[in-house]
Design brief:
single chain, Jelly Rolls
């Protein structure tokens, strides 16, 4: 199997670790293969958009989601390190309001599958990080929503020293209790 799949506390969110072939020249790995992804996860997905962000230490992006055109995301880091969070925003789910956090880095080559119906965010813990993600639907800014990263009812222990650097939309996110969520 080209991936090692590690379950998280929320069954639909999984960590994928590709098989990395390395020697004195460097390394090679297949970052995505639809057939192998389906075999490893039991999911057949179609990605329609690839995104790349670069951020410096202490930048926190999230917790983002689209209330319509929900996106599944396959996320990874190709330079640096982040602490990545997925939160279940499906009111009918037994894990509604629960979250999982995972370290993703260029060194560990981990990827995280964040299914549709989840909010997503990360904080950069290295000097900088290049973050790549594939999405199952296009970005629709009119449907984008943000749950407040510091919502005390969530109790997410972001690995920060001091206040994070935030975009205005992230600083103005809603508490989970007031957020639009999925059925």
């Amino acid at each position: 199997m080209p991936y090692t799949v590690t379950p998280t506390a929320i069954p639909e969110v999984v960590i994928l670790e590709p098989k990395v072939f390395g020697d004195a020249r460097g390394f090679f790995y297949e970052s995505f293969n639809a057939r192998d992804f389906a075999a490893a996860t039991g999911l057949t997905v179609e990605f329609v958009q690839d995104n790349h962000s670069r951020s410096s230490r202490g930048v926190l992006r999230g917790l983002h989601y689209q209330i319509e055109h929900a996106q599944g995301k396959l996320v990874r880091v190709i330079e640096g390190e982040v602490w990545d969070v997925a939160i279940d925003l499906r009111r009918s789910s037994p894990t509604f309001g629960r979250w999982v956090g995972v370290t993703l880095s260029a060194d560990n080559h981990r990827q995280l599958w964040v299914p549709p119906g989840f909010g997503h965010g990360f904080v950069v813990v290295s000097e900088s990080a290049d973050f790549l993600y594939k999405t199952t639907d296009y970005w629709h800014p009119e449907y984008e929503r943000t749950v407040l990263w510091s919502d005390p009812t969530l109790g997410i222990p972001w690995p920060l020293t001091g206040a994070p650097t935030l975009a205005a939309k992230d600083a103005q996110g809603r508490l989970l209790a007031d957020a639009e969520c999925y059925p």
